[in-house]
# Entry
Amino acid sequence: MLCVIARLSPDASEKLLSVREAALSLVKEQAPFYGHITIAAYLPEDDAAFAEDCAKIVRACPPFSVRYERIGLLSETSVIAAEPSCAGELRALHRRIAGEFGVHLDQWTRDESWRPHTTLIYDPAAELDAVCQVMRRRFSPFETRISRIEFSRVEEAGYRILDAIDL
# Structure
């Protein structure tokens, strides 16, 4: 799977790490945090044409801002996430990519049901409602600028960044 991700600024990542750290004692060991919002996840193995065409779409995109509004529970995937409002250029970029490649994207990124977020905790065994409450107490809404889009390959043991485009 090849993902198109909006990379968060170091400042935004630090703010979200602080929220995440408030609840780490309540969950099992977590994967390292990589501050991003997944815009699209392309499923076919033959992804060279997707990467090339998607890069053209991304290069036409100016830097943009997102505002993290809340900490939410995505119960269907056992994830607690920071959720940005989904307006403006983030939504427009997703629509352009999904409009072109939607049939080949995963169920979470292929259409208007896409829910942009930054995963903070994944733990199917945890009492996620309680963990989420702890994190909400630490969270304050904030805005950040997105000026880099990356292409990452999901691998058995994590992911690998293949390319990046500065907006």
Notes: The two ends are 23 Å apart (CA to CA).
